[in-house]
TrEMBL record:
It is found in: Cytoplasm. Pfam families: GrpE. It comes from the Bacteria. Belongs to the GrpE family. The lineage of its organism: Bacteria, Bacillati, Actinomycetota, Actinomycetes, Mycobacteriales. PANTHER family: GRPE PROTEIN, GRPE PROTEIN HOMOLOG, MITOCHONDRIAL. Participates actively in the response to hyperosmotic and heat shock by preventing the aggregation of stress-denatured proteins, in association with DnaK and GrpE. It is the nucleotide exchange factor for DnaK and may function as a thermosensor. Unfolded proteins bind initially to DnaJ; upon interaction with the DnaJ-bound protein, DnaK hydrolyzes its bound ATP, resulting in the formation of a stable complex. GrpE releases ADP from DnaK; ATP binding to DnaK triggers the release of the substrate protein, thus completing the reaction cycle. It comes from Mycolicibacterium austroafricanum. HAMAP family: GrpE. This is Protein GrpE.
């Protein structure tokens, strides 16, 4: 039985007092579950799209860095060839009365070295008679030539290798100037 302090309910099956105010609206269980699933699916799709974008950006950055690294290594290798090419050219210039077989052998080695440099993207630049270009040439001397246009490359002292932004070294040249 019940204690004297507890009120007795006429109907023990009756709902609590909250329900006495009328029926409460109840969301259908299916709608709330579908809404949560849809929200979770949207979050997952958003995270998936962001991950794909991050992966694409990473792939592009890696490709750029790989190209830069290749260019850097190609430049190092080609730069290491320059002293060899210079020495071979000096050997040919001082060959004088040496055996033609030796001279032909050294010339063949020089041609192979120049071919390797060209394949690496650094063609030889040793043109005389062209206008001076500060991007390609380094002035090491000036001569007065009345019958030449001022600023013309008269002599190439040391050939340059490469073109434009891909230049190992500029050509060292002697340039004409106006008569004063």
């Amino acid at each position: 039985m019940s204690s004297p302090t507890e009120p007795q309910s006429a109907n023990p099956q009756a709902p609590p007092d909250d329900a006495a105010n009328g029926p409460q609206p109840v969301e259908p269980l299916e709608d709330s579950v579908e809404a949560r699933w849809a929200a979770e699916r949207e979050q997952l799709e958003d995270r998936w799209r962001r991950a794909l974008a991050d992966l694409d950006n990473l792939r592009k950055r890696y490709a750029r860095e790989l190209d830069q690294q290749r260019e850097s290594e190609r430049s190092k290798v080609a730069g290491a060839w320059l002293p060899i090419v210079d020495d071979l050219e000096r050997a040919l210039a001082h060959a004088g009365d040496q055996s033609q077989a030796i001279v032909a052998g050294v010339r063949s080695i020089l041609d192979q070295a120049l071919h390797v440099l060209e394949q690496l993207g650094y063609p030889r630049d040793d043109e005389a008679g062209v206008p001076f270009d500060p991007q390609r040439h380094e002035v090491v001397g000036v001569v007065t030539e009345p019958d030449r246009e001022p600023g013309t490359v008269m002599e190439v002292v040391r050939p340059g290798y490469g073109r434009g932004a891909q230049q190992l070294r500029p050509a060292a040249v002697v340039v004409s100037q106006r008569e004063e």
